[in-house]
Amino acid sequence: MARALGPQRRLLAVYTGGTIGMRSEQGVLVPGSGLAAVLRTLPMFHDEEHARACGLPENTLVLPVSPDQRVIYRVLECQPLFDSSDMTITEWVQIAQTIERHYGQYDGFVVIHGTDTMAFAASVLSFVLENLQKPVILTGAQVPIHALWNDGRENLLGALLMAGQYVIPEVCLFFQNQLFRGNRVTKVDSRRFAAFCSPNLPPLAVVGTDVTINQELVRKARGKAPLVVHSCMERDVGLLRLYPGIPAALVRAFLQPPLKGLVMETFGSGNGPTKPDLLRELQAAAERGLIIVNCTHCLQGAVTSDYAAGMAMAGAGIVSGSDMTSEAALAKLSYVLGQPGLSLDCRKELLARDLRGEMTLPAGAKGQPSLSRSTLGRGVAQLLTLSQEADAVRDAVAPSLACAAAHAGNLEVLQALVELGSDLSLENFNGQTPLHAAARGGQAGAVTMLLQRGVDVDSRDEDGLSPLLLAVKGRHRGVIELLRAAGACLSPGELEDVGTELCRLASRADLEGLQSWWQAGADLGRPGYDGRSALLVAEATGNLEVVTFLQSLQGGAGAQASGPEVLPGVY
Ligand SMILES: NC(=O)C[C@H](N)C(=O)O
Known about the structure:
Subunit structure: Monomer.
CATH superfamily of the largest domain: L-asparaginase, N-terminal domain
CATH class of the largest domain: Alpha Beta
CATH architecture of the largest domain: 3-Layer(aba) Sandwich
Distance between the termini: 31 Å
Radius of gyration: 27 Å
Shape: globular
InterPro entries: Ankyrin_rpt, Ankyrin_rpt-contain_sf, AsnA_fam, Asp/glu_Ase-like_sf, Asparaginase/glutaminase-like, Asparaginase/glutaminase_AS2, Asparaginase_C, L-asparaginase_C
Enzyme class: hydrolase
Organism: Ailuropoda melanoleuca (Giant panda)
Bound molecules: asparagine
Number of helices: 21
Keywords: Acyltransferase, ANK repeat, Hydrolase, Lipid degradation, Lipid metabolism, Repeat, Transferase
Helix content: 25-40%
């Protein structure tokens, strides 16, 4: 819920480029560096006296909100700076990762961005950033901040004030005195200062003489669930606008692999040509597993099933995009297709749900996945229908359900629990987390999903056991690899009696068991209780395969540590 905050909040402004900081070079506008230096010279953006009195570092700016309230902020300038026409999912994911890296140090974030693709950026960020507890506000300008008559100062000031004074835990876009939900906006004017509109949702806040917050529209933060950054967004998605007489052959060409998902802009309330050849192409693509989302090309209103021409679209296996903007639909498609291990049906069900406030569900629609395929799913589906007062019941049973789902590798149920607001790192009655359960069950898909959600890879259960040890015991090599890549390590306690265990495996010629320990980072040269090594035991037993394997490790190719890969970022 939005609320005003006390003094001295800290913000990070991520400057990515756009007209706001552009300069004219040979008669055209190009992205310009040094925005922070410009802001430092403008008293409305920086109180130098206060900064000096507090001994703040050079790179810190002070926004003088009122005589007794200041917002401290830093501007992080990206390299390179972009005209937003050049930005892609890759840069937006990097912005999200930058926010993640600084999430603990700041109370809110402002993303300074070009306006041309800002609606796409805001939509993508809204799906990449899950469980936001802090505001992320995009803004920019139609005219550079250096110009005498410009909108950049007002927009940036508004964005900083909104992020610095209110907790609106969403990805928003601030422009011309209005704060919009980011995934509801579209750019509607290339010249006027009022460049954006939110056709199907009123603004979350309006700034006039007073600031009016539309409290009932602001999304609530989900308990204390940690921020999750979904970096895995599908790039092979597309956007196609139908027009009268569009040839089926053109549609066929567009739908070819590697395309995995399409947002199709249709006429009016979701109607399209009913020509059999066109419908056949759409149907064939849907049968191949390509997901098509139907969005209206009208600025306002939703896709309905009022017309036969609309029903024909639905008949071709096309999912309704309701009142989503095309920008939001494309971002959602990229997010849903990027989630690992989900079935086609589950992806379609997710698309039909309101995940980040991006769509208005038709009255009466629950918008939840049909989980009726398993008993576990039915249990979770019932939980989803419980009223708000039953939160405590949900919180009590969700960890055990999550463990059961993880052990069974049921990603649909895990996803439904996430939608319910469950924290997938919570422990069940014996201290095991869903990651323990997934590792014990050898469920690589569930392990991947949980790791992606940032659960603790080295959590210990009541007996001090880690997910990695459970995977080793089950000889789940794929899971061991995933856990190791995420930085999992066996603890000294878990390795205490490993020598004896290795000798036991060697005596049984259990090559897979030995390989699992090796893969998990154990030193296979450790002696057992009687001082003999696994190699000695294997030689005595006479199993050549095991002997060869253990000998090969003696040449220095022993336990390998495979820590997490750190990708260099542009920002
Ligand atoms: N007003 C702007 O920011 C437009 C600019 N071309 C951009 O999107 O970067």
